[in-house]
Amino acid sequence: MARESDYGVNDFGLKIATVNGTGSASANGLLLQALFRMGIPVSGKNVFPSNIQGLPTWYEIRVNKDGYTARSPDFQLGVAMNPESYARDIEEVVSGGWILYDNSRELDDEFRRDDVTFLGIPLADMCVEHFQGSRIRILMKNITYVGALVALLDIDMDVVKGMLQEKFASKQHLMDANYTAIELGHTYALEHFDCPLPIRLEAMDKTKDCVMVTGMRLPRSDAFMLVQLWVHGIRSHLPLLSWTASQSIAAASGLIQTQVRTTSASSKQRMNSQLLGW
Amino acid sequence: MHPTDTRDPQYYHRVVDCQWGCPAHTNVPEYIRLIADGKYTESYMLNRESNVFPGILGRTCDRPCEPACRRTRVEDEPVAICRLKRVAADLRGEIDHLLPKAAEEKNGKRIALIGAGPASLTVANDLMPLGYHCTIFEALPKPGGLMRTNIPSFRLPVEVLEEEMDMILDMGVEIHYNHRIDSLKELLDEGDFDAYFIGTGAPKGKELNIPGRTEGGANIHIGIEWLESIHFGHIDSVGEQVLVIGVGNTAMDCCRSSKRLGGKDIKVMARKSRPYFKASPWELEDAEDEEVEILVDHSPQCFVIEDGQLKGMIFDLVEWEENEKGRLVSTKQGETFIPADDVVLAIGQDNAFPWIERDIGIEFGEWDMPVVDRATFMTTREGVFVGGDAAWGPENIIWAVEHGHQAAISIHNYCRGVPVTDRPPYGMNLVSTKMGIHEWRYSNDYDPALRTEMRYADLEKRLSDMKIEAELGFDLKETVREVERCLNCDIQTDFTANLCIECDACIDVCPVTCLTITHNGEEEDLRQRLMAPADNTDQAIFASESLPQTGRIMVKDEDLCVHCGLCAERCPTAAWDMMQFDLLNPYAGHQSWPEKAITASTTSV
């Protein structure tokens, strides 16, 4: 039986279950970074037991106003996007929590729980209606659930759109598609659910002068990275240099994320997007 | 072979065997999926759109969909489509707000409907929302026609029948009971109506004029008249020994009714052997479960009457052989006497139109039946239409419903001065069911479960009362099991040639070897060059456009495909997609299909 837990504004955990190879890592990165840009201490961990397309993968996000960024023991919100892992993903959400899922196909009764709230959104149906082609539909489905989370968690839409703008400035058609997908999810959630949920976000200033670095891109040391950042003037393509064995192991075991103080607040936003691929 | 035009709605329609087999083209797979999702109301309404009487048909339909069911390609028994329809009807919620409503403003046109059976009721169902004033003339004191009088209550409870008829009549249909039309000429001459629809069924049971028929008349009954008398309470008992002559569905209703009226020894007498029986297999099964005996190769010779009282019948014992012309001929092997207190004749029905004068412009043809156009349902007199059993003899309710739909289109055209031969186009929606890399919006796992058996009320209990429904219907557990047997034939394997890289992965994964990449050729030749020869020419083969790399084509044998979706899951370029096909049936008043629908060009017949 799932645990009960305390939660609240800027204090909760969410876990997104997806399928490898669907582009969900980018969408989840967008989500994580949006929270960071709202000034809220946040940590993320990508769990991918295999890198084979089609196998399950998870992305954990812990939001903690007090700055605790170790992996969360509890998840108040589950985003269940992989039918193969529905059973465990739904089970992992604490009592009183919420589960967001794609109800283009009804959830089997066997997965239902009485002590959580199911938030069904016809994500696939909406993407079929609005996007052409199998690949783009699968990609945009991820962005659509991010759009729903924007409404459910009260994420600053301007921040999200700003990041999309940075990412796709030179690819208008992709920006349009991402905007459409974000709006689809956002509008649906606003129209069908009481938004925001009790677990929600409020802007803070706890990430001022910080950059977010993920384990996959973590250089040998923070100091070394700062030198690199300085040398390259925080331009594009932050170099990933000589990995140590221990760092490789750390990276392979998941995503290590930390927040690094910088001397230049103005450089922070650009670094964020570059480091996380956005 | 030319590339297959999958944008013609009839191509994919043909692939959905059950829907193609259904005269009303009910979207069977979708209503089954809705049941699987617990959406009984939606399932009921989807049914009602095409077949109008889901609750009635879920109990009584002759099920042309089931022999066609693709499930029989992989095992013996089809999906229990009909019984699932009943599940939707039994478990649906409130639907008043979903039912069609009569137009608030009448259009000034008045339609006479003769007979209150399923065909006439369907015409009223389709025309009332368009503003027509519909008036039904019914000879009996209640509506329903043969649905009411010929189908016993233990198969179709009266409340189910009346509820679904009321959904139509409550739109404000004017109905005159006990009002038999004795002269069509008179009705036409009165000039009160803009169009006339004849839906009087095939109300005349066939006679068996052999010696003793007249003398034993008191205990020799015409099946459909006898059933009608039971329904209206004029008959409530029968002798202990009953012979039912004939082995069609009416005979099954007669023998099972006999059991409920006190008959102990009930025999159904068949002239031929089982392969030639006209009754549906499930009706035969139900009768035999109720301990009715069926005797084959017994040809009636005469009724035996003693002191003016029926004592039984003598039958010739016959053997059947095909003659040189391929016709069955019998040879008498002997004869036998079988005692009987009552005999019920159920050897067929005839149409009877003594009330239609032959000089009013309605041409009569073979079998003294009015000449009726197969597409428009209009007779040779403009403005007079015929449908249901009255058109071409006895069929079944679902055919009558479809006749009603088509006649309503014609009447609507006729009343607006549009040629009745202008038929609105069919359309289709084709929507991807892909939700993720290996995720589909339908259950594509093959479930090896065998057909779910129906449960029946306790035999002794059900035979004690004509009104106890014999079939109990599926419970939730049985429903869940049965819906999973559907192969979702409406989820089409849709191929985009210019995406194909000819990797052969789909061919490799296909469990029924229905895919082949090969050089083009004539269809006959292609059919023999496939991974497995496509010998069933009743089913199409799909031929793609030339593939970009080699110019060969993708060929798919629609007969073999089980719609598992593995080709689409395996395809690395999404050249295969599993697309949900939704046939858009046009009804009277049709104006246009949604913008995204694929529409066949307007048809004319």
**CATH-defined fold name of the largest domain in chain B:** FAD/NAD(P)-binding domain
Q: Can you summarize the main beta sheet of chain A?
A: 6 strands, mixed
Report the end-to-end length of chain B measured between terminal Cα atoms. 27 Å
Number of helices of chain A: 9
Amino- and carboxy-terminal Cα gap of chain A: 38 Å
Biggest β-sheet of chain B, characterized?
5 strands, parallel
Strand % of chain A is 15-25%
> What proportion of the residues of chain B is helical, as a percent range?
25-40%
Chain oligomer state:
heterodimer
Features:
heterodimer, A: 278 residues, alpha/beta, Pyruvate-ferredoxin Oxidoreductase, domain 3, 2 domains, six-stranded mixed sheet, two-stranded antiparallel ribbon, 40% helix, disordered C terminus, B: 605 residues, FAD/NAD(P)-binding domain, Alpha-Beta Plaits, 3 domains, five-stranded parallel sheet, 21 helices, 28% helix, globular
